[in-house]
């Protein structure tokens, strides 16, 4: 099997003294793993920043064996945010979610374009709010649509509109911006609450039923915002 494609680097792990195993989400072929010979060299290592856009040439003798990548940098996206630790942690979290939740060699151009959109939202002032909706869109593309509007009741509390979860176990206040998406908010406490609510949904609906734990990279990102 031999093919060329463009993709985003999701992960990398040392394979031996000179090589790494990389995982890439490609435009045409979906998520693929491959060995990069010389991946620990200075020249190639500089390309292998998580989230970078690379051109890959993949070759494999058998579908049952791990293949090999030859790579070229197409767009160095992550270094653009080297001076912003919060956004770097967000990149790591987003790429790991895609690595964790997508199936090997399953084409999904919607997710590929969602990664492209991710780098656009990172450059905007309200990037945290947009990232929360980015996660929700990722889950939706994977078949898990959190329709929050159907899960809450409207209440007026102290002359202010609130959305309260319908859960019989625990009543939670859902931030208004998660329901009415046009609402602008830069309040960090409100945004962190939104991230936690989306994280609870991720745990209960996707991770625990598949015996997966909550990604440490996502927790690190959330903690960086506090």
Notes on the protein architecture:
- The chain has 226 residues and is α+β, with helices and mostly antiparallel strands.
- The protein has helices at residues 42-45, 85-101, 109-121, 127-141, 176-179, 188-207, 216-225, and strands spanning 2-14, 19-26, 30-37, 53-59, 67-75, 152-157, 160-165, 173-174.
- It has a five-stranded mixed β-barrel with strand order 1-2-3-5-4. It has a three-stranded antiparallel sheet with strand order 6-7-8.
- A hairpin with a 7-residue loop joins strand 4 (53-59) and strand 5 (67-75).
- It is elongated, with a radius of gyration of 19 Å.
- The model has no long low-confidence stretch (mean pLDDT 92).
Q: What is the N-to-C order of secondary-structure elements (H for helix, E for strand)? A: EEEHEEHHHEEEHHH
Main β-sheet description: 5 strands, mixed, barrel
Give the overall form: elongated
Distance between the termini: 47 Å
Which range does the strand content fall in? 25-35%
Task: List the domain count as a whole number.
Answer: 2
Count every helix, treating DSSP H or I runs of 4 or more residues as helices: 7
- Which value, in Å, is the CA radius of gyration? 19 Å
Strand order of the largest sheet: 1-2-3-5-4
In terms of quaternary structure, what is this?
A: single chain
Low-confidence stretches: none
